[in-house]
Write a structure and sequence with these properties.
Helix content is about 35%, strand content about 25%. By secondary structure, it is an alpha/beta fold. The radius of gyration is 22 Å and the shape is globular.
Length: about 450
């Protein structure tokens, strides 16, 4: 077993640091078993900037129709049909799966981006629901500004309104001691095989975290085929991919933000508690964008089987094309053509993890990668690793499937990592907030931390 440490780009390899990190990681390696390498976080990752000559891309958050949200919310009263869009595995293929059920609407919250409907948990509709035992659910619906689409709320054929949007389940902490609730863990699910992810999330729930579990965030990405024949088609395809990707990533971020703020408003024991993001496979592709939206509220993140550059991933993945078929002369785009589209896509997208990863460089982050992943290619996982500023990384022998099969055995270790790093991150934020408050008092102005300050500051 080898332990790999990546040296800071602008600091060089100092011997005493190598000895220190080697000693710290020795105990970790002994618990990881099949982990082929462990790389500690670069101690200077928060200070690392973009590569020389690289332009900084700030998030461009797509607008939503606020007037639609204000108008539609009152029309959904006590009952509604909730539509859940997801995917299921049939043999070696992933196919769309839609299920609907009548629900009692408990509350409606209008935001600048849409409407969050709180509904009852409903009857279990899958084996996973039976295992999870959700205590509640939420649906986030919106309509894009200037879009002719009717949005996420329409009349149901069965009568009454029908809500279709991002579906979120609320799972209780498993420690059964509300007074010791530590925070919120957001579970961004993968495409399939959630049973492998659940033990990791449950280990964190046992430590006192309430869970918001999102359905696969790409389920609303409508399948499309793009035919390429000329150079202009390449740029048009890149534009189309960037638009679809950024809209989908933004919708996931808006939904999680609305759900977290809803829990903070309605659950006093969770008010201003830390948020931990856990993303798996396809769900992890949305995690950096969700983190960029939540900002300082995020105190820790775990990404499993993740990567950067979604356009490149869907063109090279051996599992799925994400519902987007890029065809050139009757064949799937490969080689130089795929590379050209991916490069042009990155120039146009602002919410791809390639760009939003930079917002996480002060967030304690753990990456788990497969050494030979061909579903979310390992090379793109390494790309994301560098964009994140080289956080802690565990690399396992094998590919994507083997990585997920091994998760159950690593669940407790991952939960301990979360506990240790969130504790230190939260304490550091509180210390910074206290120093800022003291400074403002001594200077005779201000009222402590403002909206941009630490959300863990006393109110």
């Amino acid at each position: 077993m080898s332990v790999v440490r990546t040296c800071a780009k602008n600091a060089g390899c100092l011997h005493f640091r190598s000895v220190l990190f080697g000693a710290v990681m020795a105990s970790i390696v002994s618990t990881l078993g099949a982990c082929s390498s462990v790389t500690p976080a670069n101690p200077l990752r928060a200070e690392l900037g973009a590569d020389p000559g690289e332009r900084t891309v700030l998030p461009n958050w797509p607008a939503r129709d606020a007037e639609w949200a204000q108008a539609i919310a009152p029309t959904v009263r006590s009952q509604a049909t909730v539509v859940r869009r997801t995917v299921v595995r049939e043999e070696e293929r992933l196919v769309p799966f839609v299920m609907s059920s009548p629900r009692t609407v408990l509350s409606r919250t209008v935001t600048d981006q849409g409407v969050l409907f709180e509904v009852d948990a409903g009857e279990p509709s899958s084996k996973l629901d039976i295992v999870r035992q959700p205590v509640g659910a939420m649906v986030f619906a919106s309509r894009r500004t200037g879009d002719a689409d009717v949005g996420g709320v329409v009349p149901s054929p069965k009568g009454g309104p029908e809500i279709a949007g991002i579906y979120l389940q609320l799972l209780a902490a498993l420690n059964d001691q509300p007074s010791e609730t530590k925070g919120i863990v957001v579970h961004l699910q993968g495409l399939a095989g959630v049973q492998y992810e659940q033990p990791v999330v449950d280990a964190v729930r046992r430590d006192g975290y309430v869970c918001i579990a999102t359905e696969f965030p790409w389920a609303n990405w409508k399948p499309v085929t793009i035919e390429l024949g000329t150079e202009k088609d390449v740029f048009d395809a890149a534009n189309a991919l960037a638009e679809m990707s950024d809209q989908t990533l933004a919708e996931a971020a808006y939904a999680v933000e609305a759900a977290v703020e809803h829990l903070w408003r309605t659950r006093p024991e969770l008010k201003d508690k830390p948020v931990v993001l856990m993303g798996f496979s396809a769900g992890s592709l949305a995690l950096p964008t969700v983190a960029a939206r939540l900002g300082e509220r995020v105190r820790g993140a775990v990404l499993v089987g993740s990567g950067a550059n979604i356009a490149h991933i869907i063109q090279t993945s051996q599992l799925t094309d994400g519902g987007v078929r890029l065809m050139a002369f009757g064949k799937r785009c490969e080689g130089a053509m795929a590379g050209l589209i991916s490069g042009e896509y990155i120039r146009r997208s602002t919410l791809d993890p390639f760009h939003t990863a930079a917002s996480m460089r002060r967030v304690p982050t753990l990456m788990l990668l497969g050494a030979s992943d061909d579903i979310v290619p390992t090379t793109l996982g390494e790309e994301l690793y560098h964009r994140l500023g080289e956080p802690e990384k565990w690399v396992f022998a094998g590919g994507h499937r083997r990585l997920f099969v091994q998760l159950d055995a690593r669940a407790e270790r991952i939960a301990r990592w979360v506990a240790e790093n969130v504790r230190s991150s939260t304490q550091a934020a509180a210390d910074d907030a206290a120093k800022g408050t003291d400074k403002s008092k001594s200077s005779g102005g201000g009222n402590g931390a403002g909206r941009g300050g630490s959300l863990l500051s006393p109110k």
